[in-house]
Sequence to fold (156 residues):
Amino acid sequence: TPEWLRYSMHRNKRNNVQGAVLWDVEISLKRKLRQKISGDVVVNSNLPLFEKTIVPIQVVTKPAFLITPYMLIFDKGQSQQTRIVYIKSGEYQIESVYTLMEIKPPKECIKVNWSKEVSAKEIKLEIINEGCDFSSAKLEILLNHDAVSVIPIVFK
Fold:
């Protein structure tokens, strides 16, 4: 198995193939994965035509949060511009992580107001440019001090 999988084998209680011992193979993740990953589980046996069986495995992770829009664009040289970002439940339920979440603006000239909305199913971020005039920046979203998302900010 790939290094990110663990497996266990148990002899099958039903033995409905004459002259063969059947096994149940259970696979599980060794650790939580943060990105899509794939690999193969290779099963070797002494059964004719099944000496080597390759089983493709693909793990598609659920995002921690669904964020829209994924990028913010402000007009260069104009202050007091406001953009709205919505954070919706992905892997984590918004209500359970609301107090653990931290939003880090890139500079003091970017203000962030945020609140739970729609019966705690999403968080509404109000991003205000109070005079920033650089080419790009990023807004970080953290959960328990670990970054879970970055929203690029572009000034045109």
User: Anything to note?
Assistant: DSSP finds one helix and twelve strands in the chain. The longest strand covers residues 146-155.
